[in-house]
């Protein structure tokens, strides 16, 4: 009798186990944002950021307005678009079919993107039709092109089936006037019918730009860039040696580039320059610490970043340090406007993603409210009054999406891309090189090593 009961009990357990395993096998894989109540809220955050992309995508070109309902986009914004698309798909905010449809339209635009006289992508485009914007003379900014290259590499890392299309687009571009022989990124502009270039030596975006170019095999310069150091709350903050009186633009430090190098690259310089990687990480930690200390000492929640407005002044450089002064808020022409200092949404999400501390928790208590479910995440709230800056931009909503993806994957978003792609195959034919100063054209040893990254 006991043996019979035991056999029946064992059989029941076996049947139950089999049924449970069958149910688990049939269930869909969980979303990266599935789970309890906190994840439900964070899923809403990601969906709100995606709402901006939905509202501002131009159906004919696949490009996304850089600012809400304003049909102009920059190279930086095209990189934003690729990153936002990838993050939305990885977070299961959109289906693979929608991802493919949106990306395919954008790839078609990239394949025929009008170029400057130097053969480089231009700084600004009409988002509706992809034509070069007439708002300024032809120009290419290294940090904007770097953002686009980073976005292209992010797509390839997660979705290698699109690699050929993206590498074919990049092969159209002439990098001779974008990266010099020493590996320094160059800004370029058409002046008096000549293309004039200038090396980018600013401390904040130069590392991001060099890292993005290195993702495509460009050997980053080993030459240390000149910098100055300011002491804020006892912490050394490095900033550029450029004279703002001559350039007309602020010379300072804000959070965005340090956040992006952390979220996307883990503060690691491709091509193995360990000294550059250490410098990037150290500077980022100091940028975090000095804002945390201001909160601890002065009781001012601080998350500084450059941002946009819907009225003049249209762009504000809201710094940690700029033009010789701490916590300097500057409008066009380096005008001092402290009343426009902002608790930046993009900076809040970036700091929160990278550091899990009481300070970032305090930031998010307010930052999580900087949204409208019908429009997206707006730029932030003013430090002095607490009033909202209800301007919606692609960059802020992209940073929210990539911060969410980083938080739920716990690692850098841009994956290593190994050899064997379309560009590698094309560069094997040395007699038909495009002569665009691509990495294998600069260093034929790259081909022998087997790839863009020399891996």
Automatic annotation (TrEMBL):
It holds the Pfam family DUF3131. Residues 44-409 form the DUF3131 domain. It comes from the Bacteria. This is DUF3131 domain-containing protein.
């Amino acid at each position: 009798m006991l043996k019979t009961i035991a056999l029946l009990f064992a059989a029941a357990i076996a049947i139950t186990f089999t049924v449970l395993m069958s149910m688990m096998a049939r269930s869909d894989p969980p979303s990266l944002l599935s789970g309890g109540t906190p994840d439900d809220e964070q899923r809403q955050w990601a969906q709100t950021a995606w709402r901006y992309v939905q509202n501002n995508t131009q159906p004919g070109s696949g490009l996304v307005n850089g600012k809400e309902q304003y049909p102009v986009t920059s190279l930086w914004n095209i990189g934003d678009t690729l990153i936002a698309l990838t993050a939305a798909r990885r977070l299961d905010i959109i289906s693979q079919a929608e991802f493919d449809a949106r990306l395919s339209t954008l790839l078609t635009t990239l394949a025929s993107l009008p170029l400057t006289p130097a053969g480089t992508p231009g700084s600004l485009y009409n988002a509706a039709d992809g034509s070069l914007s007439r708002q300024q003379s032809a120009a290419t900014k290294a940090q904007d092109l770097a953002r686009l290259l980073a976005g292209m590499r992010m797509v390839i890392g997660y979705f290698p089936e699109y690699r050929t299309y993206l590498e074919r687009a990049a092969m159209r571009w002439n990098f001779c006037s974008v990266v010099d022989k020493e590996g320094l990124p160059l800004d370029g502009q058409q002046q008096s019918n000549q293309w004039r270039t200038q090396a980018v030596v600013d401390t904040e975006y130069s590392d991001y730009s060099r890292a993005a170019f290195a993702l495509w095999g460009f050997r980053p310069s080993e030459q240390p860039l000149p910098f100055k150091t300011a002491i804020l709350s006892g912490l050394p903050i490095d900033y550029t040696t450029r004279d703002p009186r001559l350039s007309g633009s602020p010379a300072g430090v804000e959070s965005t580039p340090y956040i992006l190098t952390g979220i996307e690259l883990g503060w690691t310089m491709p091509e193995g320059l360990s000294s550059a990687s250490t410098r990037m990480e150290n500077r980022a930690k100091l940028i975090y610490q000095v804002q945390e200390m201001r909160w601890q000492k002065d009781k001012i929640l601080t998350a500084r970043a450059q941002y946009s407005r819907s009225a003049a002044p249209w762009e504000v450089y809201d710094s940690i340090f700029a033009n010789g002064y701490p916590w300097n808020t500057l409008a066009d022409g380096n005008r001092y406007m402290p009343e426009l200092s902002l608790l930046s949404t993009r900076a809040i999400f970036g700091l929160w993603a990278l550091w899990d501390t009481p300070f970032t928790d305090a930031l998010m208590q307010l930052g999580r409210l900087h949204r409208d479910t019908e429009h997206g995440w707006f730029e932030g709230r003013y430090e002095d009054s607490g009033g909202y800056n209800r301007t919606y931009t692609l960059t802020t909503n992209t940073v929210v999406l990539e911060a969410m993806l980083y938080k739920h994957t716990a690692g850098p978003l841009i994956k290593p891309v190994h050899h064997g792609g379309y560009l590698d195959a094309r560069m094997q034919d040395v007699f038909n090189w495009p002569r665009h100063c691509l990495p294998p054209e600069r260093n034929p040893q790259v081909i022998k090593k087997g790839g863009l990254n020399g891996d």
